[in-house]
Design goal:
single chain; 800 residues; alpha/beta; Rossmann fold; 2 domains; ten-stranded mixed β-sheet; 31 helices; 25 strands; globular; binds N-[oxo(pyridin-2-ylamino)acetyl]-beta-D-glucopyranosylamine
Length: 800
């Protein structure tokens, strides 16, 4: 949009006064932030209205991304950037003596997601709008987002994240669009005399679902999509039977809290209620809108909407859509089923067995009696149809209802036309191993969509310095098309460019060093290699491998203080699920290793270890630009894709990583020699599984380095970790090291040494860094959502 500085200043001052009856001399940061957000909202409101009108009038097909988590972080700068007014506003505020970055800090992170899956959903939201694609989000407006992490005496402590305390200026409550979602009670079918079976209900519990819309503003275009988040409330007119406080409590619980677990299935009733709540509310709204604005034949709805099931949490979309079509809109079963297949698509985000969602049949029957009937019917018809075609074994292996449980992945695959993994390797594993039986039956449904990241947030906002240098070097076209970064390759031997890249990295390291000092009181050397591992804490991601290597470097220096080593700062950021005991023990151990090393005067600043508290999107925006090295060291086959790997690449960090997830595609894109690869391959891991011949104890006993490091965990060398040290020691040496940490240790040490060697040659290092940046284009989520649009959703971008 066009906006003069003068106009902005006037709008802002007026808003400050009209909203808070104050002026610039007296306003506090909260007031300044609220007034600013309100002005920004005013700026995009008209674009939003116009785009909604455009969508309604053209009746274009739209996609709806159903996700139980979103992780957008802060919105202020992102909205300013996308509106094209970031600099105008920054300068306008400067004239008033106000720093935009200080104002931006007031905004709490919107953290209604755990990790990769939620952040990916938010990258998609940004990319859909920015590529002009009509694609909307649908989720839950949790009152409390992901817990805030504190580290106390080395342990993780969880505090509530009450992010809505000061209001949320971006959202719009749409009470007029509220719908009801019902649970429990009894249902029976009666013939209506014309041969139709009509469901009748008794004693249902009713919950009001109120939508809150948050605009997703496209980058310098005219698209504004919607992220709809549902809040649960007590309906105004209630059956007296339900009018009690307990009911009120239960109802508001539905949208009270995000489940803080990542990659894990938790079979609690409340979770199932949440899943049905936002699925039912979202689909009802879509159908109302379709009937209301388009007045088209309901039987044609498959031509106008696509619904995406982001992991299995929204899998109830399949039976709920069937219920709405058949029961509420009178569509015949077969037609409804064909429509459901056409509308639905599904993404799998993990092959970890503990994440595979399944619900006891009895629970679904009690909580969602009509949905249960529909699932039974889907399963029955499918079994009858497929038995003669593919035989009993395949049918049995892929049934939705099996062993008294409803298998949500099976439901998602069977009830949709597309199942995708999130990186090539992951999608291959789905086809070849994890979902092989489904692949045999429905090969045409399987496809890959390698993840991507919203590059606007992860470089234009997070790394203005680097962005500026790139502008100076190759012009600004990359800001609209990340592939244009390829032009940087022409400067791979240009001393000035290389120097500027080094300087930018150094400044970003200074910025992070200040944050580390402030948060942890630790002084780090900006000339050291900043080596970063940030992601959820999980055994398969092997933060432990990193920690063991740090101990090795420490012992090397203790044995030989004169050793010529490039100083290193190891930086961790990770939340552990509150119920994940082992992960929390690893946090404690890393913190105590950090204490020991940081307080050892003989080590000076050759080695520092920092565990940053409360890793979240905003902290990532400071940490990742400052990284020289990104750690992507999961056990091959376990990390479906990873997305921080792409963020590091974009910011010119070199990756040390295994051949897992999207790392493989990153290594290939960046070119040989520009990253550090180590460890078992997926095939080698599977070979061990087949043969059962891995013996971690042998490595402990035979490798003196490993021996010494592991002993340090239990013999008091690392102080204050008595039970946690023992727990980890045992997991490796007694319980045979589930994630092959010891098996990959030597090769990791080798790769780390190579990394250090390259770092000594700053020119060569910076060239490798440049090659990573230059080749990152394909990891833009703009590319990813276009693939979803073309291959899965069949939606078209708006022409500007
Ligand atoms: C993968 N979350 C990453 C990322 O595709 C991948 C599961 C159950 C309950 C709550 N959260 C989850 C995940 O499974 C998850 O975040 N998976 C991650 O999805 C995006 O890049 O490799 O681990």
């Amino acid at each position: 949009m066009k906006l003069s500085k003068k106009q902005f200043k006037q709008d802002f001052e007026e808003r400050l006064t009209s909203k808070f009856a104050t002026d610039l001399t007296k306003a506090g940061y909260q007031e300044i932030y609220d007034a600013l957000a309100s002005v920004v909202k005013h700026y995009y409101a008209n674009i939003w209205v116009a785009d909604n009108q455009y969508k309604d009038e053209t009746g274009k097909k739209q996609a709806y991304y159903f996700s139980i988590e979103f992780l957008p972080g802060k919105m202020l700068k992102s909205n300013l950037l996308n509106l094209g007014i970031l600099n105008t506003v920054r300068e306008g505020l400067n004239d008033f003596g106000i720093e935009l970055d200080e104002v931006a800090k007031i905004e709490p992170d919107m953290a209604i997601g755990n990790g990769g899956l939620g952040r990916l959903a938010s990258c998609f939201m940004d990319s859909l709008a920015s590529t002009g694609l009509p694609g909307n989000g649908n989720g839950i407006r949790y009152r409390y987002g992901l817990f805030k992490q504190k580290i106390v005496d080395g342990y993780q402590v969880e505090l509530p994240d009450s992010w809505l305390n000061n209001g949320n200026p971006w959202e719009v409550r749409r009470a007029d669009k509220a719908v009801e979602v019902t649970f429990g009670g009894e249902v029976w079918l009666e013939d209506d005399g014309k041969g139709n079976l009509i469901p009748h209900y008794k004693d249902q519990e009713r919950v009001l679902a109120v939508p809150y819309d948050t605009p997703m503003v496209g980058f310098e275009n005219t698209t504004v999509n919607n992220m709809c988040l549902w809040r649960s409330e007590v309906p105004e007119e209630l059956d007296p039977k339900f009018q009690n406080l307990d009911y009120m409590r239960q109802t508001s619980m539905l949208s009270a809290e995000l489940y803080p677990d990542d990659s894990n299935y938790d079979g609690r009733l409340l979770r199932l209620k949440q899943e049905y709540f936002f699925v039912s509310a979202g689909l009802q709204r879509i159908l109302h809108h379709y009937k209301g604005t388009q007045k088209k034949d309901i039987r044609k709805i498959g031509d106008y909407i696509a619904v995406h099931i982001n992991d299995t949490h929204p899998a109830l979309c399949v039976p709920e859509f069937m219920r709405l079509l058949v029961d509420e809109y009178g569509v015949g079963w077969n037609r409804a089923w064909d429509t459901t297949l056409k509308v639905m698509s599904y993404t799998n985000h993990t092959i970890l067995s503990e994440a595979l969602e399944k619900w006891p049949e009895e629970m679904i029957k009690q909580l969602l009696p009509r949905i249960y009937q529909i699932i039974v019917e889907i399963d029955r018809r499918r079994t009858a149809e497929l038995l003669p075609k593919v035989g009993a074994t395949l049918v049995h292996n892929t049934r939705i209802i099996k062993d008294g449980q409803i298998h949500m992945a099976n439901l998602s695959i069977i009830g949709s036309h597309s199942t995708n993994g999130v990186a090539k390797l992951h999608s291959d594993l789905l086809k070849d191993v994890e979902l092989h039986d489904f692949y045999e039956i429905y090969p045409e449904r399987f496809n890959n969509k390698t993840n991507g990241i919203a590059d606007r947030r992860w470089i234009q906002i997070a790394n203005e310095r680097l962005s500026g240098i790139i502008d100076e070097t190759i012009g600004k076209s990359w800001r609209h098309d990340l592939d244009e970064l390829k032009l940087l390759k022409n400067f791979n031997n240009d001393e000035k460019t290389l120097e500027q890249l080094q300087k930018a990295k150094f400044d970003d390291k200074l910025r992070l060093a200040a944050v580390i000092k402030e948060q942890k009181g630790i002084t780090v050397n900006p000339d050291a290699i900043f080596d970063v591992q940030v992601k959820r804490l999980h055994a398969y991601k092997r933060q432990l491998l990193n920690a063991l290597h740090i101990l090795k470097l420490y012992f090397d220096l203790k044995d030989n203080p004169e050793l010529d080593r490039i100083p290193r700062v190891f930086i961790f950021g990770a939340k552990a699920a509150p119920s994940y005991h082992y992960a929390k023990s690893i946090i404690k151990v890393i913190n105590e290793i950090a204490n020991m090393i940081n307080n050892d005067q003989t080590i000076k600043d050759k080695l520092k270890v920092v565990f940053m508290e409360n890793y979240n999107v905003s902290l990532a925006e400071v940490i990742i630009p400052a990284a020289n090295v990104g750690e992507q060291i999961s056990l091959a086959s376990k990390e479906a894709s990873g997305t921080s790997n792409m963020k590091f690449m974009l910011n010119g960090a070199l990756t040390i990583g295994t051949l897992d997830g999207a790392n493989i595609e990153i290594f290939e894109a960046a070119g040989d020699g520009n990253n550090f690869v180590f460890g078992l391959t997926k095939d080698e891991v599977y070979e061990y599984y087949r043969n059962g011949n891995y013996n971690a104890r042998d490595i402990y006993e035979q490798n003196p380095v490993v021996n010494r490091i592991l002993n340090a965990l239990i013999d008091g060398t690392v102080p204050n970790i008595k039970s946690e040290g023992r727990e980890i020691f045992d997991s490796l040496t007694v319980y045979n090291d589930e994630y092959f940490v010891l098996r990959d240790f030597n090769d990791y040490v080798r790769a780390q040494a190579e990394l250090e060697k390259l770092y000594r040659d700053q020119k060569a290092w910076t060239q490798a860094s440049l090659m990573n940046i230059a080749n990152v284009g394909r990891f833009s989520s703009d590319r990813t959502v276009r693939e979803y649009a073309d291959d899965i959703w069949y939606i078209k971008a708006k022409k500007e």
